[in-house]
Amino acid sequence: MVKLSQKIELRIEKIVFGGEGLGYFQGFAIFVPMTSIGDVVEAEVISVKKNYARALVTKLIKAGKDRVETDKITFEDFQGCDFAMLKYEAQLRYKTNMVKEVIEKIGKLNAKLVLDCLPSPEEKNYRNKVIEPFSQKKGKIISGFFQKRSHEVFEVEENMLNSKLGNRIIEVFKMIANEEKLTVYDEKKHQGLLRNIMVRTNSFQEAMLVLVVNTKKLEESLKRILLEMTQRIPELKSLYLSFNTKKTNVVLGDKNICIWGEKTLKEELFGIEFHISPTSFFQINVPQTKHLYEKALSLIPDIENKNVVDAYSGTGTIGMLLSKRAKKVYAIEIVESASRDGEKTAKENRITNIDFICGAVEVELDRLLKEGKQLDAIVFDPPRKGIEESILRKVAEVAIPEMVYISCNPSTLARDLKIMADCGYQVGEIQPFDMFPQTSHVECIALLQRVKS
């Protein structure tokens, strides 16, 4: 048994689901983040449970073969990038194995259904949206990550996940903010101006800057500083102020005002133009998103002659892409504002074979069938919690022949696939995609087909 704060030496035997390394000390399981198989480390125990403990690396004694060889990166640089110490081919291998493990253990399915994880076109600097909190260190304004289980900000010189343009905008703003001696928000005192900075970029090397401030009014001095950004960063197309005076962890305030430039940032996928605002949801890694959606569309055979349901449609990104090939698309979304935004985007792109339906999936499926609509396939792209069992059983009840499941959480995917398998659906291939290089997160697409009776 180990004790809290005890320093131990151990060898990492495997990477478990979630990305942590697993080793054993005197037969007791120890989970250690930011390690690779074969690493021999000195680690300090930070928590002890009945059957396992967690520890943080204090010294790398011997590097495993999958670890990157560099003296420039320290463990602290990995904040938010829990696979950054791994060679990229190892990241892909670990992600494939993590998906196989949960598909077998939770889904009770054959791990051979899981294909090798497809690499991202960009291994670094792929994020088109970044939010960093501000803090102060030795009188200097900094930004970065919140440290785990803490509200202390850890500054990173250049975030390897952010777009290079996003990193440059943040650095220039901090330079100006320090020159102007702006104040930083203190959540304990509820005082200070600067709370967070958000930068959104697109495929055309254009950017939107959103500054989140602890004030209720637009001060001319702040507007002047932001306008100076447009002189230093010509790629900026939009400037927003978000007023957030609440004692909350929610980043954006209720009031977001465009003080300069365009109100939205344009992005394009498969010839469809999307307009992105500060609050819009859009996929983070656009080059890999194109591959992900192309795969999803290819899984539905003879799609040109089929009516397809886009469930959990959000603003209808997948639905509009489906509409390029499918005969008819029904995009079902329970959030009214998202459904309205999707309808607006479809009109702007002159897409006429998609219907946006605001309501609960199980209710609207019933209604469509009662109206005599033929539903040939359904595409799901749910949040991390997966799909409610009642919805899955409704899909099985109405006997939709084909289902494509896009998942950002392999555990809930495995759970839901088991439910559908028990309801008479055959699970086909499961394709992992590396949407988030340098992290342990992995996206998957699965195909399910109703077994004919």
TrEMBL record:
The keyword Transferase applies. CDD domains: AdoMet_MTases. It comes from the Bacteria. Gene3D superfamilies: 2.40.50.1070, Nucleic acid-binding proteins, Vaccinia Virus protein VP39. S-adenosyl-L-methionine binds at Q283, Y312, E333, D381. PROSITE patterns: SAM_MT_RNA_M5U, TRAM, TRMA_1, TRMA_2. Keywords: Methyltransferase, S-adenosyl-L-methionine, Transferase. The active site is at C408 (nucleophile), C408. This is RNA methyltransferase. It comes from Fusobacterium necrophorum DJ-2. The lineage of its organism: Bacteria, Fusobacteriati, Fusobacteriota, Fusobacteriia, Fusobacteriales.
